[in-house]
Amino acid sequence: MVYNKKFKFWLVFLLCPLVAQGTVLGGYGDSPSSAAPTSASSAVPAFSAPSNQSTSAPMPRSRADRRDDASAQQQSTTQDKAIEAKSSSSSANNDDDGSDDEDEEELDELALAQKKYEQALEKNTGEGEQQRINADAFDMLLNQALPLSPDQIKTLRRLYDISQQATAATPQAPPTPLSSSLRVNLEPGNTPPLIRLAAGFVSSLVFIDSTGSPWPITSYSLGDPNSFNIQWDQRSNTLFMQSLKLYSHGNLAVRLQGLNTPIMITVVSGQKQVDFRIDLQVAGRGPEASAPISNESLQAAQVNPLLINILDGIPPTESIKLEVSGQHGEAWLHNNRVYLRTKLTILSPAWTGTVSSPDGMHVYEMMKTPSILASKDGKAINIQLIGL
Prior knowledge:
Layout: H1 2-28, H2 32-43, H3 63-145, H4 150-168, E1 176-184, E2 194-197, E3 202-208, E4 217-222, E5 228-231, E6 238-243, E7 249-256, E8 263-269, E9 273-282, H5 295-303, H6 306-311, E10 320-324, E11 330-334, E12 337-342, E13 345-348, E14 353-356, E15 362-367, E16 371-376, E17 379-386
Helix pairs in contact: 1-3, 2-3
């Protein structure tokens, strides 16, 4: 744009004299008769004489004078055009200089805008790249921490639960828990008592004497320590025993305080029934036994195994259940004898046999009678038997 304006200026400046010369030559190219009157009329104005003066005819001019006037007029016109062209070129030059400055300013603004655009583009590109990197890193961490979908996690937990159930399940149904009493007979030729155990279940072995009093333990010996486990507090009359294997068997020897003969017990695991608690009642009086009431009653209790079954809650076969007033116990009529299971102490009639458990339960064997006198908290009460 700058170079075009400068080119136009020099073109006008160089052509102005030629244009002026061409105009003069063109004026002289016409016939004198047609050019002279035009120049004369335009060069010399016409004056009108005042009204109070006489009008006189103008002086006739010669052809040479008219030609000189036309030439002067033409030269003046040429000079005016040259001055105008020079002025125009100067103005154009000034415009070109201003335009150059404006163009340079526009170029600088464009360059600055281009630079800012490139910086903004670079910044946005960097931020976008950083965001993309952060998103990729988050997705990678999420896949590493939680590679499974919620549905897959639920399925996995369900399958894991099923596998745990299958692992913990035993080949057979869980054993039935029992609580019973066993009478230990130390006479030669008798079969040792059998205790049923199970893996994962603890059984308590309680040693008592004929009166139901605790008989303390002094020591024990286990036949297969790899198959069974025993815990003892070194002073009480109770052993806690459990099986370490699903199927195993062995035996146990226990020494009681003041008893020279050890008590031999057979233990076996993997049975359908488990002795959760078993009271081993040893024939005889232990060191903590209460004073006997009658020697006859003690001898009767030692030889009658039916009392042990009634103590465990097993009534005699072919017996008649009797109703006890006041709900002070249970009674049965068997072979014309009355068997009473109660926690009270019987005062009358005299009983012929008795057996007790560590929890204070007693079983009495007595003759057939409809009325019993017992003691409860130091007070005598009357018990009626209905159904005889």
